[in-house]
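Any chance you could type out a protein's amino acid sequence plus the matching C-alpha cells because I've never seen that pairing?

——
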Amino acid sequence: MAGAVATPTQTYIRRLLATNKVRPAYGQGLRGAFLWALGLGIGILVNDIAFWFQVGFVGWLVSYTDDYLAVGRRVAGGAVVTVVGAVVTFLATLAGNNIWWSVAAAAGIGFGVGLFGVVGPAGVKKSLVLMFLTLFSIGFPGDVADALGLFYATLIGGAAAILLMLITLPWDRNRNQTLILVREFEAIADFADTMARDSDADAIGAAHTEVMKSADDASVDARWAVLWRGSRRFNALYQQGMEVMKALSAFIDVRSLTDRPSIPGASRMYDEVAAVLRDKAVQLREAGRILTAEEAESPDVAAALGAIAEVQDWIRANPAPVAQGDAALRSLSDAVRALGAGASDTGTVARPSRPGVEPWHLVVINLSNDTWLRRHLLRYVVLIAVATWLYKFFDIPDGFFMLLGVNIMLQPDLGTGFSRLQIFSLGTILGSIIGAFVGVTFGGVPVVILLVSAAAFYWLTAYFNVTYWSFAIGISIAIVSALGLLIPGGWDLGLWRIADTLLAAVIVFLGLILLWPTRGRRLVPKEYAALLRRTAKELQAVIDGESWDEFRARRERILVANTDLAFNIERTAREPGAPIELKREHQRMLVDVRSIQGGIANLAIDHLQSGRMLDENSRNLAARVVQQLELVATAYETGQRPEQLDRIVPPGTDTAAEYDDDQVAIVELGVATQYLLRWVRPGAPSPA
C-alpha cells in the first residue's frame, strides 16, 4: 500500500537484498557462487564429482578472499592463495593417511597461516581459507595420484577466479575506492553525531574508539587504492576526511578542561560537520565513482564554518583551554573548507599508510614478546593439533567438521573467540538441519543441490549484512547438502556435523579458559603505564629540542601504541567476567591521554618544526609535567594513588590571563595530567 511504513523485518530484508553502484550484484559473492555452480555442474555432467568439487570450492574461496583493493594486489592475492592452497592441499592429502603426520600438518600450516593475522583484514581472510583447504584435505586423505589431482584442481579453481575477476573488471572498477570513502565519511559523521547529542564521557569514549578503529581499517585499504585511476582525487578526499577526524578527536577533552557540562554552540557545530560529511557520502554512493572537482556538486559548508566560528569565539573568550581548543577548531575549519572545495586531479599522490612498522616487523615483534597475538596463535595451534589427534585417533565420523569448527571459532580475528563460539555453533546447527533436509529430499536430483548450495554461498558473501550467524548457516547448508554427492549424506551427515561442531565448541571453550588466557585486566593497566611513560618522553623531547624528524618517528610509534591499546581494550571486554564499567573507564582514560598527546604535538609543531626552543621558564614548567606523567603512570600501574600532585603554576603569575602562549599550553597539559588521577583504582593488583 502506498505510503505504508516498512516494518523492521521488511527493512532488514530490503537491505539484505539491496545492491547499488558501490557494491554491484555481479561482485565478489556472485562470482564465487557462479564458479562453485560451474565446477559442481561440470562434475555432475562428466561424473567426476571429487575433482570438480575441488575446482568449484577453490573458485569460491579465492573469490571470497578478493579484498576489492587495487587490481594488481587483487591478482597477486588470488595467485598467492591459489599457489599456496595447491601446495597445502597436496601435503595435507598425503599427511591425512597417518595420525601424527596429520597433527604435524594441521599444527605447522596453522602456525604459518596464522601469522597473516597481523597483516590486516585481507590477510586474515586468506589464512582462514588456506586452513579450510588444509583441514578438508586431512579429512579426505589419498595417495600421490589423488594428491596431484587435488593440486591441479586447486590451481584450476584459483585461476578461474582470477580470470573471472578480470573479465568483470570493467563493471566494478573504482568501486573499492568509493566504498572506502563512503565508509570513512559515514563513520566520522556518526562520531560527530555522538558528540552532538551526548555529553556523557562513556559514550564519547566508546565512539572515539570505534572511529579510530574504522580509520585504522580504512588506512589499510587506502594504502593500495591509490594505485588506481583517479588516485589523486581519492587521496585528496581520503586525507580531507582524516583531517576532520583528527580535529574532532583533538577537541574531545576541551569540555572537561572547561569544567562545564557543554560548550555553547558545540552541538550545532557537530551537527553541521556531520551533515557535510553525510552529503559527501551520499554524493559518492549515488555516483558510484569519485567525481572530478568539475563534476562534483560541492556540499554547502557555510553553515558548518559559521558554527565552528561561534565556538571559536567562545573558546577565545575563556582562559582555560585556549591553545588546544582554538588549534583544534582551526584545523577543523580548514578541513571542512577543503571538503567544500572538492578533490583535484593534480598534485602528488602520497600513499596513505598506517602509522608504524611494516607487517613482517610486527610478526617478529609479536613472536619475540608476550603479546596477545602470540598467546592466541599458540593457543590456536595447540587446539587445532588436539582436535586433529582426537579426530584421527578415535576415527570420529566426518570429524573434519570438528577441525573446521575449531578453525572458524578461533580465526580469522584473533580476539573474539567466545562470541564466535556461540554464534557459529547455533548457526551450524540450523544450517546443518536445512542442508540435511535438502540432501535427503533432493539426493536424486543433483541440479537442485547445485542451485541450493550456490544460493547459500551467494548469501554468505554477497551482501552488506553478512554476519557470523549468516556465515555459519550459509556454509552449513552448502557443505552438508553438496557433500552428499561425494560421501554418504542425508540426516547422518547433518547430525555428525552438529555433533562435531559441538565437540569443537567444547575444545575451544576449554582452550580459551585454560591456555594462555589474555589476562587483559592485568595487562591493560601495564600498557597504560607504558603509554603514559612514552607520552612523558615525547614531552621531554620537546623540552630537549629534538629534531623534527626524530619527533615524527617517535610520534608514529605512539600512534601505533594508541591503536594497539584501543584494540586490547575491546579484547579485554570479551574475557569471561569482564565488567563493562572497566571497559568504559579504559576508553575514557585513553581519550584523556590522547588529548594530552595532542597538546604535546601542538607544542612540537610550534617549536621543533620551526627550530625554536622553549624559553627557560616554559622548559622548567614542562619538566614538572613530565614528572607528573611518570607519577600517574606508576599510580595507575600499582593502584597506589600519590598523596598530592604538584599543582603547576608558572612562577610570578597569578592568573591565566598573564601566561604567554607556551605557558598556557603547558598548564593545560598539567591540568589534564592531574585529571588522569580519577582513573586510578586503589588496591588494583600489580600487573607485574
In short: Residues 75 and 163 are 9 Å apart (CA to CA). The chain has a mean pLDDT of 77. The radius of gyration is 28 Å. Residues 520-650+657-679 form one domain.
